[in-house]
Amino acid sequence: MKTSSAYALFILCSYCSLAVCQQQILSPHLTLRNATLEDADDIATVMIAAFSPLRFWQYLYQFQEEVPHEHHRCVRLGVVQALDAPFSHVEVIEAPADSNLTVAAAAIWIQHNASYDGMRMPHVSTGCRHKDMNVTRALDYKHKFDAAKNKYLDEVFGSEQLYLTLLGTHPDYQLHGAGSRLLERGIEVGKTNNVNVTLIAQPTAEGFYVHNGFFSAKNISITSADEDESFRYNVMAYNFTSGGL
Ligand SMILES: *[C@@H]1O[C@H](CO)[C@@H](O)[C@H](O)[C@H]1NC(C)=O
Ligand SMILES: *[C@@H]1O[C@H](CO)[C@@H](O)[C@H](O)[C@H]1NC(C)=O
Ligand SMILES: *[C@@H]1O[C@H](CO)[C@@H](O)[C@H](O)[C@H]1NC(C)=O
Ligand SMILES: *[C@@H]1O[C@H](CO)[C@@H](O)[C@H](O)[C@H]1NC(C)=O
Ligand SMILES: *[C@@H]1O[C@H](CO)[C@@H](O)[C@H](O)[C@H]1NC(C)=O
Ligand SMILES: *[C@@H]1O[C@H](CO)[C@@H](O)[C@H](O)[C@H]1NC(C)=O
Ligand SMILES: *[C@@H]1O[C@H](CO)[C@@H](O)[C@H](O)[C@H]1NC(C)=O
């Protein structure tokens, strides 16, 4: 397998546009910065809040509700791996000062190059046995997801890419521009490095990405291990010829 994204197992690029209440207003001057190790806990909290309502997450993390602490610990470990890896970087939007979180939204980017050979599976990483996850499903899903990513992203948009593995905003802070700001930042980096900026979106997020200048390259469908369910995704890339940022 030429490239793979083990992050796909626990954090898939998405913008959760589910109905939310009690939204809080972020400062109009959103503070974007690189994440540090101290943010890992809150990034995991943001991801779980944003993604756990989605069906693919419930399918993979079949036992998350039985072992919520283990779930948080494993997601956090994935974030720490992303913070440590030389080919990925993590950016955050700070939460308002009166929040009990430091982070309102986060994005994890992978800078591919020809020698990038993917991440290890999170369940084999030290310190996490993934009791929250159905490993049979996860392996099957990773295999199918990687094959689709290879075919419709890497073979089309080049071995050098800036790939958005994850974009999540805490439900309390959605729809205030945090996701767009994180995305804008990636587009700037892609432009500077002259690489395509790519992602694989949840259906709920398509409109958001189109609004931000991405076009749909392919719709893919990943079937469940028992073939009784399927998960649709939209493979997207930023359109650099549409007139810039
Ligand atoms: C953030 O990280 C990128 C590399 O991932 C680096 O180029 C940039 O200088 C960092 N920004 C700050 C403010 O540290
Ligand atoms: C943080 O605040 C939210 C309400 O905004 C609350 O639901 C949550 O339990 C709080 N978390 C902690 C760790 O205090
Ligand atoms: C390609 O990425 C790997 C890490 O995945 C890094 O070690 C290597 O230096 C990169 N090569 C180039 C030419 O950027
Ligand atoms: C794990 O997933 C597989 C495939 O969906 C399923 O057949 C199996 O029953 C699941 N394991 C448990 C313990 O539920
Ligand atoms: C971006 O992707 C297009 C295919 O849509 C490809 O022709 C082009 O070479 C890629 N750009 C770079 C900088 O790799
Ligand atoms: C993928 O599906 C969306 C509708 O959800 C559609 O707007 C888009 O054009 C499709 N993409 C392709 C490449 O057909
Ligand atoms: C990119 O944008 C240009 C200008 O708006 C448009 O002509 C072109 O069809 C777009 N490309 C894709 C692949 O959507």
UniProtKB/TrEMBL annotation:
Keyword Thylakoid listed: no
Superkingdom of the source species: Eukaryota
GO molecular function list: acyltransferase activity, transferring groups other than amino-acyl groups
Keyword tags: Signal
InterPro entries the record matches: Acyl_CoA_acyltransferase, GNAT_dom, Trichothecene_AcTrans
Signal peptide positions (record): 1-21
Keyword Cytoplasm: no
Record domain N-acetyltransferase: where: 161-215
Pfam families referenced in this protein's UniProt entry, alphabetically: Acetyltransf_10 (PF13673)
Protein name from the UniProt record: N-acetyltransferase domain-containing protein
Organism phylogeny: Eukaryota, Fungi, Dikarya, Ascomycota, Pezizomycotina
